[in-house]
User: Fold these one by one.
Assistant:
Number 1:
Amino acid sequence: MLQLGDYCPIGVFDSGIGGLSVLKDIHKLLPHEDLIYVGDSAHAPYGDRSARYVRERSQAIADFLLDKGVKAIVIACNTATAEAASQLRETMDVPVIGLEPAVKPAAKLSKSGVIGVLATQRTIDSERLLGLTERYAKNKKVLAQACPGLVEHVEACDLNSKAINQLLQKYITPLLEEGVDALILGCTHYPFLLPAIRKITGKEIQILETGRPVAEQLKRILKENHLQKILIDSAQNLQYKSRLTFYNSSKDKQHHLSMQKLWQESGTEQVPILELPNLENT
Ligand code: DGL
């Protein structure tokens, strides 16, 4: 097979397993690209950590990915994007793609003019969210709801227990009472809770995730930088399987099981989980 383009993998990371909701969209849109995913479950949730801690962990993980030869890095975590994206863009010599809560599309979709954002406290307090709101939703009412506890439930692969449903009720019902008709999932762990969230909101509310837009942004950036993998022979194209490599910083087998379960639920093949070596925070 004639090989063209850049065959290096793409690095993707999150505070834990939530970023798999983004990885899923990347894998769907760019099925030929090799992907290395790092979940930092031993140090999740980032939302409860200091800004400095999140920056240091993000830098250490990005350095690890760079050592693995990645050609681009996706920060599949809103919290790490808010705290560390500018620093990583300065220190990495590969493109760094971050996430942003979907304020712009939500503002377009909302008819009631009331938008809800579910996110970690750190994302809610970030200048990034403030900036997006000022820019795209100045004439809307934006209600930001911090959701402590949700990340831990998703990390434990608890997506539908009484406890998680009660937490979701507590966070979402007041937003609905205020007239929210567009709800932004501003944390990459939350899309795994979509069925439980839908039960509370009903079908009419628009729920916005960031996985697909980020995958499209990544595709654009790879193309602009001539970094996309190009397979020429079409028969082989059909059979080509990209290589997926997963790391997790946690030694807890439960985290590894959750990671496998959530990945497989996205309809893809099982991927063994490797233990992330100890990384020095920089
Ligand atoms: N997935 C992360 C995000 O998108 C979760 C943050 C956390 O670990 O608190 O913000």
Number 2:
Amino acid sequence: MNDEVSTGGDDVSEITAVPYHLGIIMDGNGRWAQARGLPRIAGHQAGVDNIKRILEHCVRRGVKVLTVYAFSTENWKRPQEEVSGLMRLLGLTIQRQLKELNKNGVRILHSGRMEGINPHLQKQIRNALEVTKDNDRIVLNVAFNYGGRAEIIDAVRHMMQDRVEPDAVTEDLFSSYLYTGGIPDPDLIIRTGGEWRLSNFLIWQAAYAEYYTTPTYWPEFDEVELDKAFIEYNHRERRFGRVLQK
Ligand code: FPP
């Protein structure tokens, strides 16, 4: 990873606080491809390439956890060809990138259900988690076969299996049962592609997150765009329900 910092004309000195945990809804791959007369899967491939660029800039800026929404539980409803293309892409990406990610100190986590993912891909995912488990430069948490409601249901099931007493249920305990257990809640959620929805992404964890959306399609969301989001984040007053004393 190089240390070159792009400014794009924005005043990056305004970035005094960066989110500890950043979540990104990577939308617009299909439209990006369509605009170029390419198949949708070419947009997803460009989207994967962009994760690397943004991850590197997150390291540069000091973000400690990056969660990317790569495949939602709703995405199974897409045409079969696109679904298998996305599955193949994850496998290929692990195959091609794992070594370098590991060398660069990236710890990979997975948020989502393993059930439904083909056994070979499950094995690749487990291996990526195992190989990178001691890395601490940045966490890349890949939300794959992920749904926020499914995550809550899974947490409730586990708590019941553990016979947790009703009185023992607190927000902290519940959070620890989520896929993201142990990771602080996201401070900022970015959505590319122009929509203003959370689309079932980190719905419990995002309760106090700042939300930022841009019409830019994910494959074109670069370092300058990310800095813009960070500058906007620095202009927000995070009150967490309190009244701030001036
Ligand atoms: C939305 O674009 C994007 C997704 C379905 C998820 C993002 C997926 C990737 C970046 C590639 C897969 C990542 C891995 C690690 C395998 P869209 O298709 O909804 O775009 P559109 O709204 O323009 O149609």
